[in-house]
Amino acid sequence: MSKQKFDTVRIHGGYDPKKHNNAAQIPIYQSTAFSLGTAAEGAEVAAGLVSDSFTYSRVGNPTVHTLEQRIAELDGGIDSVAVGSGMAAITYTILNVAEGGGRIIAPYDIYGAALDEFQTLFPKYGIIFDLVEDINDIERIKSLIKPDTKAIYAESVSNPIINITDVEELAKVAHESRIPLIIDNTFSTPYLFQPIKFGADLVVYSSTKGINGHGNVVSGLVVDGGKFDWSKDKFPQFYEAEYSLKNSKYPTNYSFANVYGNQAFIKRLRMKYLRLMGAVLGPFDAYLEMLGLETISERLDKEVATGKKIAEYLNNNPHVKRVYYPGLPASNQYELAQKYFPKGIGSILSFELDGSSEDTDKLIDSMELFLYLPNVGDSRSLIVNPSKITHREVPEERRLKDGINNQLLRLSIGLEDSDDLIKGLDNAINKTFK
Ligand SMILES: *Cc1c(COP(=O)(O)O)cnc(C)c1O
User: Fold this and answer.
1) 156 C-beta closer than 6 A to ligand 1
2) Which residues does the record list as N6-(pyridoxal phosphate)lysine (modified residue) (predicted)?
């Protein structure tokens, strides 16, 4: 692992031009399959004895591989797997951890589709979620860990209420019970926060959002911190014999844990989930994502600065009841924000309008500049009403407990001029209440 700094790695990580005809930018390897060489070489490649070899683009592709290496390095992980969406990254990670059934602890306050999957789909596969109101209530989390609990899952910054998870404390609790901590770091991106440094074992991303930053690709990533020991206890899928790993080097004892050591999790995710379930990311999408990633620091610095101005503007507006933004000194999470987010809390914030449901609709219809759509982390500023769009599938009673009422609006701040954005918001609020 190189010791270069973040801004260097985001440009050069995982890529050596000499291996690609000296092309400055990573070529798009728009090829389904790759020649195996001689019969003897082909046998070695197929047996997994040649590292960084490519055979078929559902399993691995050089353009996609560069993205995977770059993200793993940016996040301080040992390896990563790129997949076709953030939901695929979450799904494959949960299945690879809790295959065959078990329990996972997670908060209610997460991405709507993830909550829907955890509550209504995974239980049908024998994976039961113990959902909590407050993921930072450490005593409650401890009390929920049972013999078949296999992981703790949380978002570093939650969607849409912008709650910061105390990752370091949660990691300690997980590791005391020999279970991994999985963090969805989508809102923060590796530029603002690196969960592995605070003890997380696995990091998942919807790189559709801030990592790419231009709203043009749907994609996901799983990053492995490489510190969790999968070779015993609750995780037999890693220490049972895996026939496809049998080769001349491992004629016996060919389990993922034995063959791959601390890479067991990420190698298994690629070989059992990406290869067999197939939610693959294409090379052109990976190329666009790396193009977006090249400017992540500058984009986020500007978006964070504008987000802070907008939070302050909203905080002082008489028609706004509450602003969800831990970067404000009045927030009860201000201290956590200082600890985990020295570069700023992010480009996404929410606020509750002091008005009726109809006023909220009116505000959306009066909105200038901000696009009304369900996405975040774009270079364009966006607005959405979570109760009716992104969190529509969450039962009303549950939503209201988490503050997701009809007056809640989520903003994702883009790269436009901050004065224009504030003017757009101010005009829409004035029009709504005139
Ligand atoms: C968007 C999002 C997802 C899902 O990602 P897709 O790329 O849309 O599948 C998961 N988690 C969070 C926090 C998200 O914002």
Assistant:
1) no
2) 209
